[in-house]
Structures are given as C-alpha cells and as structure tokens.
C-alpha cells in the first residue's frame, strides 16, 4: 500500500524504503485523525443532546450496550495488530542489509562525520554513494554518543563509542541530502551537519578513483582542505570573529595567555601541541572543549594545518 510520496511535513522520499515508511506514517496519521474527529464529535453531540435542561431534572438510567463495548475493544485491537504487523515488516526490511550491499565505515567525532571507503579513501562530512545500489554503513563513535539521521532516506541510527552499529539504504535519486546528528553531543551539536551525495553508478566509480589526496598537494592547500573537512571552522574563525575557540587570524607569532597565568608565543611547536594535546594548555577565556580526536592526524596533516594557520595574518 503506497500513499503520497511526500507531504507538507515530510521531505522528498529518496530511498527504496522511504515510501513504505511514509505509507505507514500516513496510514496511522489518517486513522488517528478519523478517531480524533469521531471522539470530539461524539463528545460534542453528547454534551448538547444530554445536557441538563432543568435544575430538578433526573436523568433516566442508561443501560450498557454490549455492541458498543465490544466495538471499542475489537476495533482498536485490530488497528494495533495491523500497525504492529506492518511496522514490524518495515523494521525488518530497514535493518536487514542485502548481502551484496556496498559497505562504508563511518566515524562520529565532536563535531563531524568521517567516512572510509573499501579502497582506503576517506572523506569528511561528505558521504558519496551510488544510486540504485544498497549501501551499508558500519558506524562507531570516537568520543560520545551521536545519531546518524538522513530525513530524505527515512533512516536513523545511534552511533556509540566502543562498538559498531549499522544501517543501510538504497538511494533512488542522484542529488544531495542532508545528514543530521540526532543525539545531543556537545556545544556544537547543531552544527554537526554532513551531506550524502548520490551519484549515478558510473560517476561514483569515477569519483572513487580520483578522491584521494594527491601526495604533491602544497601544505597550505592541504591545510585549507583539512580546515573544512575536519570542521575546524565550527570553533575557529579565520576572520577574527570569536567562536568557541580562538580565531586563527593573527594567531601565529602572537603571545597566548593561559588559564594558569603562564604565557607562550604561538610558534610551530605550540600549534602542534595545541592540535594534538588541546588540553595541555588552555587559552584564557576559552573552554577546554576541543576533542582529543585530532591526535589521530598524520604528521603531514598536522604540518599542513600549521602552515594554513601561519598564513592567516
């Protein structure tokens, strides 16, 4: 049973399971609306029909009707069984990935998503998938609980530290779709956005072959790319504006004052320590909330970020 594909309160359906989820939702919304109108209508009728007309009026005793009592037991039971059976079938389909699904590993960080493909390519906040092919996400968190949610696909799954969870989908339409974190995970939770980019199958294969970072990419250019991909922009501006963390504008070579009153010049060694051990020396006036996940950056990536920061004068 397939009802409307989209409504005023649901985004466009863009996965193979989305129409089934929408049909179940719309069926239950329709039934709930009919029941609500019926209950309110009956209440209104009874209030008007059986209102007290005189102060000395004594109403006649009302005998129960077995048909009515049976109806309000049997009808809701049937509706619940229909929804349970229907919902259980959709649930099994949503959480049983086809054996030939293309598998991608997902890492949740405060506050960005990282995706690792079977050939070793990694992307940040951009999940590239082929259209018309089942895709399975094997997910884990590096720090706190996150929740991977793609409204257009009607899929959502908690992402937990120290264990794997999974979900799968089959995107039906090429395009871009927003990924949300649906579990509060810290101060920048609302900014933990990513996007699913659905390619035609041949285009996806071409993207996969060319997606790696070239070895000869200049450090400053690589640093700018990491600044975007690792979501550094969510806490550190490059225009001097104040965010959760210190701005990168004019940072290199400046004197930093820390919570314990000590000071240091922001040279290469300080920047390296601030990236890999953010809690070692906390700048005065800023919270110690930078996640330790950046300690997994390679030496080349750290050097690239430092070079990028040096250019923000």
From TrEMBL:
Q: How does it sit in the membrane?
A: Multi-pass membrane protein
Query: In what residue span(s) does the Cytochrome c domain sit?
Result: 218-313
Occurrences of domain Cytochrome oxidase subunit II copper A binding (ranges): 99-210
MF terms in GO: copper ion binding; cytochrome-c oxidase activity; heme binding; oxidoreductase activity
E.C. no: 7.1.1.9
What's an example GO BP annotation here? ATP synthesis coupled electron transport
Q: Specify the signal sequence span.
A: none
Q: Which residues form the Cytochrome oxidase subunit II transmembrane region profile domain?
A: 1-98
- Describe cofactor binding as the record notes it: Binds a copper A center.
Major location category of this protein? membrane
Q: What is this protein called?
A: Cytochrome c oxidase subunit 2
Q: Source organism lineage?
A: Bacteria, Pseudomonadati, Rhodothermota, Rhodothermia, Rhodothermales
């Amino acid at each position: 049973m397939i009802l409307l594909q989209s409504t005023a309160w649901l985004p466009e359906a863009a996965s193979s399971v989305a129409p089934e989820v929408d049909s179940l939702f719309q069926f239950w919304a329709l039934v709930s609306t009919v029941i609500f109108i019926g209950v309110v209508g009956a209440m209104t009728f009874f209030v008007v029909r059986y209102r007290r007309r005189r102060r000395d009026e004594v109403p006649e005793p009302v005998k129960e009707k077995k048909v009515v009592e049976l109806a309000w037991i049997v009808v809701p039971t049937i509706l619940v069984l229909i929804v349970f059976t229907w919902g259980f079938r959709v649930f099994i389909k949503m959480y049983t990935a086809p054996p030939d699904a293309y598998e991608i590993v997902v890492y949740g960080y405060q506050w960005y998503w990282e995706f690792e493909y079977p050939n070793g390519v990694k992307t940040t906040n951009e999940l590239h998938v082929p259209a018309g092919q089942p895709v399975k996400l094997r997910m884990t968190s590096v720090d706190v609980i996150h929740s991977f949610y793609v409204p257009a696909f009607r899929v959502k799954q908690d992402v937990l530290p120290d264990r794997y969870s999974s979900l799968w989908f089959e995107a039906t339409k090429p395009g871009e779709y927003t990924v949300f974190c649906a579990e509060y995970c810290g101060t920048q939770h609302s900014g933990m956005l990513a996007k699913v980019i659905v390619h035609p199958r041949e285009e996806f294969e071409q993207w996969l072959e060319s997606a790696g970072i070239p070895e000869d990419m200049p450090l400053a250019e690589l640093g700018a790319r990491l600044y975007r991909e690792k979501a550094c922009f969510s806490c550190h501006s490059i225009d001097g504006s104040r965010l959760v963390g210190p701005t990168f504008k004019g940072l290199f070579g400046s004197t930093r004052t820390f919570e314990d009153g000590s000071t240091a010049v922001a040279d290469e060694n300080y920047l390296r320590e601030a990236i890999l051990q953010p809690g070692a020396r906390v700048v005065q006036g800023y919270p110690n909330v930078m996640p330790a996940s950046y300690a997994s950056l390679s030496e080349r990536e750290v050097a690239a970020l430092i070079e990028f920061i040096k250019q923000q004068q």
